[in-house]
Specification:
The chain is of the alpha+beta class. The chain has one domain. The chain is built from 4 helices and 12 strands, in the order E-E-H-E-E-E-E-E-H-E-E-E-H-E-E-H. The chain has helices at residues 19-30, 73-82, 136-139, 167-175; strands at residues 9-11, 14-16, 36-37, 42-44, 47-49, 53-55, 60-64, 96-99, 110-118, 126-132, 143-147, 158-160. A hairpin with a 2-residue loop joins strand 4 (42-44) and strand 5 (47-49). Helix 1 packs antiparallel against helix 4 (167-175). The longest helix is centred in the N-terminal third of the chain and has 12 residues, at 19-30. The radius of gyration is 16 Å and the shape is globular. The relative contact order is 0.18.
Amino acid sequence: MTNVKPIETRYSGHRFRSRLEARWAVFFDTANILWHYEHEGYPVGGRPYLPDFYLPECGTWIEVKGHDSMLDVTLMEAAATQLPLLSYKGEPGPRLMILGPIDRVPSEGDLGWIGIAEDWSRPGTLRHDRFGFGSFDKNRRPWYLDNGQVDERWTVPTVDTWERGVPGAYLAAKSARFEHGESGPG
């Protein structure tokens, strides 16, 4: 893994810190998911933390990373318990989701990304499960797909062929062009 500096990218009136973040904004727009970019920073684990996105319809915070080596797992687990639970419109989603590169587009089904939340059956412990966006329109929140393993790659999604999925949103995000002044889908 080489250390490549992200390229700031403009899309939808925002200046994203990377093309990957902008591609996720394209995904959210195509999937009709309301989002706020860098909504507000908060102290987490004794240091300042600025989550990448907030999904106000389900109360889920989003962190986008290009590779597991860029991810501070301790910070992410602290964020899952210490970020504020803001008001949201529908059912709650996982408290925090980790989204990685959009390298593949499912032909059917959905991709499952790590979601971290307190385990309601065992207070004080965290769950690391996989969530997708295929049922978002119905449930207005990321949908539980399966139980992820802590030792798995966090920024690499699993595939769930049973979920109806959102292949079109993944395709739009993956194919969004930001080179040479372009501003995304088009």
